[in-house]
Design a protein that fits this description.
Elements lengths: L1 E6 L4 H12 L4 E8 L3 H11 L3 E4 L2 H10 L5 E4 H10 L5 E4 L7 H9 L3 E4 L3 H13 L7 E3 L2 H10 L7 E8 L9 H6 L2 H4 L9 H9 L1 H14 L6 E5 L5 E7 L4 E5 L5 H9 L13 H4 L13 H12 L3 H17 L7 H12 L8 H16 L2
Parallel strand pairs: 1-2, 1-5, 2-3, 3-4, 5-6, 6-7, 8-9
Antiparallel strand pairs: 8-10, 10-11
Helix pairs in contact: 2-3, 4-5, 5-6, 6-11, 6-15, 10-15, 11-14, 14-16, 15-16, 15-17
The protein binds NADPH dihydro-nicotinamide-adenine-dinucleotide phosphate (NDP) and magnesium ion (MG).
Length: about 375
Amino acid sequence: MKKICVLGSTGSIGTQTLEVVEAFPNELKVEAISGHKNIDLLEKQINLFNPKICAVMDREKGLQLANRITGSTKILFGLEGLIEAAVSSDVDMVVIAVSGMIGLIPTIEAIKNHKTIALANKETLVAAGELIMPMIQHKPLTILPVDSEHSAIFQSLQGNPLDSIRKILLTASGGPFRDKDAFAIQQATLSDVLKHPNWVMGQKITVDSATLMNKGLEAIEAKWLFNLQPDQIEVVVHPQSIIHSGIVYQDGSVIAQMGYPDMKLPIQYALFYPNRMANTSPSLNLFDLGQLTFERPRTDLFPCLSLAFEAMKIGKSMPVVLNRANEIYVDQFIKGHIGFAEIPSKIEAIMDRHSVINLDSVEVVQEVAIWTERSIAQW
Ligand code: NDP
Ligand code: MG
């Protein structure tokens, strides 16, 4: 029985992870869960899975939850609570399904405590891949990717060494504005942005998918996971989201992974790696699909993609600035404080003002994130 901790169990990835657990009651046990504020759902999850630990980021909400529950589940609070859940001695695998840079410290602490990580959260590697990858250099399978593109690349890599990769094909749906013009993008409202054509996800990543920042963050994530140079990462817009990404090998042969868009597949692959467990997912029907199409990304209309590649090439502290500025401006857009088209220009302006420094420690990563917050506040 594999014992798992799900950080961010109330979110899109978190709830789908728990659905996978429910489908395999003899193989998986939920040992710990966590949320930020959604204590109603946490209470339901406690009643259903009876975890030993439930960590609530918001202390007041956590106290309310502690007063509500009657069973033996221990309620913990704040970032320390998330860390304690992740490093708990009974846990074998930690699913990092929180959104944003908050995933960084729990991931690092879990690695230090020899846990296997199923990593959905992409902001962690974007900000601190330079620190995290050396930690697992002798045990690369410590981090198993959950993000569908990285899972696809990982699945396509099985049996081959990293240096047999010529380049990767990182597929993108193109988001809701793929075939729109600059005027429509300029006018985009939150409800237009949240209409993703193929995936139902949390709000932040859905906005990132519309700006194509999501693909930029994924490119940086792929650089770290698969030890790639920026020019080995080719973004391919594939509106049907059936090919989830692939590898062009040194001999020109391409191996890619296909399937209907359903995050439960990459989640299940990570939870059971290297085994493929039988489930009730439908088989891909190529006759129904008829055709798969491919386009180049329109970086003129979606500058976030170019900004992410620029940050990746500059490296060091620049991806931290890109990531934190994006988190803040996406939040401001969701709250109605700035327009959709302002997101890239504001991120670029902060990147322009940043003097790059080396990332020697997690503290430096946090200082750069704070520098970004302050620069934006003083704008
Ligand atoms: P959601 O917004 O749906 O869920 C986020 C989860 O994190 C919730 O459990 C939320 O708690 C918790 N959370 C949010 N902020 C904090 C905080 N400050 N401290 C502690 N916990 C917090 O996000 P998704 O599930 O969509 O995405 C999670 C991660 O996975 C992201 O990094 C995303 O990029 C990545 N990802 C997501 C995919 C998807 O299909 N959704 C696909 C590939 C990657 P609460 O609900 O209580 O607020
Ligand atoms: Mg993805």
